[in-house]
Design goal:
With 121 residues, the protein is of the alpha+beta class. The radius of gyration is 17 Å and the shape is globular. It starts with a helix and ends in an 8-residue tail after the last helix. It has one domain: Homing Intron 3 (I-Ppo) Encoded Endonuclease, Chain A (Alpha-Beta Complex). Helices cover 36% and strands 17% of the residues. Strand 3 and strand 4 form a beta hairpin. The protein is built from four helices and six strands. The strands form three sheets. The chain has a two-stranded antiparallel sheet. The structure holds zinc ion. Zinc ion binds next to loops.
Amino acid sequence: MSPFDSDTAKTAGAKGGGWNRGLRSDLLDRLSDKFTIGDGCWEWTAGINNRGYGMVQTDGRTEPAHRVIYQLLGGIIPPGMHVDHLCRNRSCVRPSHLEPVTVSENQSRGMLGRDDEGRFC
Ligand SMILES: [Zn+2]
């Protein structure tokens, strides 16, 4: 295999998705086989941490997969904001299921989500 072969493959892939943005499309190529795209949630199938979030290695750092995918597909996360799952599925990386929220808003939503854990059992 020559280096030209892999260049050709990358160019073809980027054309199909319309995500031809250099390193970012390379990263997206690398991640595109790590989640399943369906009618509902896009389930992350690679590494999941002990809290149920998909995790991904980029530039030697480990980051939450939903944040990485959200930004790769054009989403903007303002500084200091968290990305909340509207679908409550922590392994989901579908951008339309994600929304940037302030940290305090995310925590108050998290409290509501914890009601069914039986604190008063
Ligand atoms: Zn979802």
